[in-house]
Design brief:
Layout: E1 34-41, E2 47-54, H1 64-104, H2 110-122
Antiparallel strand pairs: 1-2
């Protein structure tokens, strides 16, 4: 008999933001009852697939429309979180590039260096905008 373990979640939310404390994890939301497909790798690179059904808890009074609305909301939320993380990481990369080029410029390019510093100030790149990276948390 073959067995597998699954936490009924979709793919993890990507990308993460390194160096930022998260009170939780980047696991995705739990998926609704329904039919899913499992792909199993087998011998010599050949794979096989099988369908299986996750049943709804019989103690819940939930319609299919309720499940669909919940899943649509959670999917949109996961996409929004992923977008925020992506934009945050790209903005931090931009800041690092400007800082790098400023470090390569000579003092006779002061106007360009100042323009770069001004751009950094106008760009919400600091983790302190949303997160406090230096914040200590209590450990239990």
């Amino acid at each position: 008999m073959n067995r597998f373990a699954w936490d009924f979640r979709g793919e993890n939310i990507q990308p993460d933001i390194s160096g930022v404390y998260v009170n939780g994890d980047y696991k995705s939301y739990r998926l609704a009852p329904g039919t899913y497909k499992a792909a199993v790798l087998s011998f010599k690179g050949n794979s096989t697939e099988t369908n299986f059904t996750v049943l709804s808890d019989p103690n819940l009074s939930v319609t299919q429309n309720d499940w669909d609305a919940q899943q649509a909301f959670l999917q949109k939320l996961a996409v929004n979180i992923s977008d925020i993380h992506t934009h945050f990481n790209k903005t931090n990369q931009l800041k690092k590039q400007i800082e790098h080029y400023n470090s390569l410029l000579k003092e006779d390019n002061k106007a360009l260096i100042d323009a770069g510093k001004g751009l950094i100030k106008k760009t919400p790149t600091g983790k302190t905008m949303w997160w406090k990276p230096g914040r200590k948390t209590a450990r239990m």
